[in-house]
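Researcher: Next entry: Ig-like domain-containing protein (Paramormyrops kingsleyae).
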Amino acid sequence: MQPLVIKIALLTLESNWTEIFTTESVTLRCGLQGDSAEWEYKWYRDQKEIQRYETGHKYRILSVTRSDTGQYTCRGQYRRRRVLSEMSNDISITVSGRMFYESLQVCGLQGDSAQWEYKWYRDGQEIPPYGPGDKYTITKATLSDSGGYTCRGQYRGRRRVLCEMSNDLPIKISGRKVLCTSTWHNQQEIPKYEAGDKYRILSVTRSDTGQYTCRGQHRNRTVFSEMSDDISITVSALPKAVLTLESGWTEIFITENVTLRCDLQVGSAEWEYKWYKNNQEILKSGAGHQHTILSANPSDTGGYACRGQYRRRTHVSSEMSSTLQINIAGRFFS
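Model: Predicted structure:
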């Protein structure tokens, strides 16, 4: 005996779209006109019955795969009698899988990607993007940007839809700390005829005072290193030596002692002194700031001068003092 066919089944999809992505959940609902408490349900994909343990009016696929693609229908069966409803309308469901393809600069999706936004990861940790779109740009790379980069798409209208993770692209940022050898002065680039790692000022002047920095530039690309730490250089004027005679007179008699004193207009602890008579350096055992003639004689007559010399940088000398004329006179007896 053929079962009596009554009622019309209505199949609906509870989501608003029929293109489903892998790992999404899908719920189909089979409704019957009138009282449906005494009815159970049969489900079909591509006209083949789907074997399932429950017979409720909803059919849910918790995590869809591509094999779930097909045309779905349903119908009701009366619980106590072999009475079947008419077959429902069909709903076509397409399950799409989204795969990334390898790209150095673009995190791209195969197929239409207009409805997708992107998530970016370094060493498995999500990193904030600097802007929308399928490109992630590091504008000024540092050593901390090294790591394994991956990306994946997220559907704009369905936050739970994520495509598979892309391939891993390792990026290594190399560099070394730049020693300051000065290519910038007070934030103004210094024009140089050579591009070596040393910058030399052969004879400094006070205008060379300032903060110096430098950075490297790749020879074949417009790639710059980070700016170095700054070094502050202060160029001071050379101190002037002041020569004085400790006695109150410049005419000295033979056998008298004479003491000359050389002073600098700076702290003198780091300075030693050179002495001159008639523009010729006087060789003496000490380099103190006093020069003593213990028992003067006429040969000591002449123009005396002095200057300071920096102990740790022997090429740095003060300005020469003014010349002090000393005359050694013979004694006269009455």
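Model: Note for the record: Residues 242 and 263 are 5 Å apart (CA to CA).
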